[in-house]
Amino acid sequence: MRRNAFAQAVQPWLDRLSKRYSVTTAGAPVIGLEHIVVVAVSHSDLPLRLNVDIGSRFPALISATGRCLAAFGGCPQDELERRFRTLRWDLAPSLKEWRREIETTRRSGYSIDKGNYIRGVTIVSAPVLNRLGRMSHAVVSIGVGEQMKHDGFTALAEDLLSAANAMSEY
């Protein structure tokens, strides 16, 4: 996985973002609606930080990355809703809230999950889009919610979006 072309291309972006915002950052290809697999990662220098390993697998439709996939994956709405009902969150949004968050993601180009997937953890994600405008990969930031709140979610999200846009050829 470390030799993956996307992983090599996104790594410098992840390193910069991780250092600038003191968060863990990751890059992952989307493998259908089942899961994503982390192929690149960068950790902050903080003594207390969240850890993600290369090869870690996460449900594709959960959290901020899931909202991005739902917004930019080109999947039928009924299939998304069926799969939404099987997801396991700490603080699950209602289906109505989730739909609204997907629309917000579609407009902004990124998503922020403030403790829904894992209580106390904020996850920010931006989709890497292919030539057809479909999500092929994700650029993700993970951190302790209160630490990330201090630095500002929007600035981080916009920087993640810049990284994702730069990776659009993968």
Task: Tell me what you see in this structure.
- This protein has helices spanning 5-21, 63-72, 77-84, 95-108, 145-151, 153-166, and strands at 24-31, 35-37, 40-42, 57-59, 111-114, 121-129, 135-144.
- It is of the alpha+beta class.
- The longest helix has 17 residues, at 5-21.
- It is globular.
- H and E string: HEEEEHHHEEEHH
Mean pLDDT level = 91
Major sheet details: 7 strands, antiparallel
Which structural class matches the secondary elements?
A: alpha+beta
The CA-CA distance between the termini, in Å, is 15 Å
Please tally the helical runs, counting DSSP H or I stretches of 4 or more residues.
Answer: 6
Please report which band the strand proportion falls in: under 5%, 5-15%, 15-25%, 25-35%, 35-45% or over 45%: 15-25%
DSSP strand tally:
7
| Percentage of residues assigned to helices | 40-55%
Q: Catalogue the unreliable spans.
A: none
Give the topology.
Blueprint: H1 5-21, E1 24-31, E2 35-37, E3 40-42, E4 57-59, H2 63-72, H3 77-84, H4 95-108, E5 111-114, E6 121-129, E7 135-144, H5 145-151, H6 153-166
Antiparallel strand pairs: 1-2, 1-3, 1-7, 2-4, 5-6, 6-7
Short description:
The protein is α+β, with helices and mostly antiparallel strands.
List descriptors:
170 residues; alpha+beta; 7 strands; 41% helix
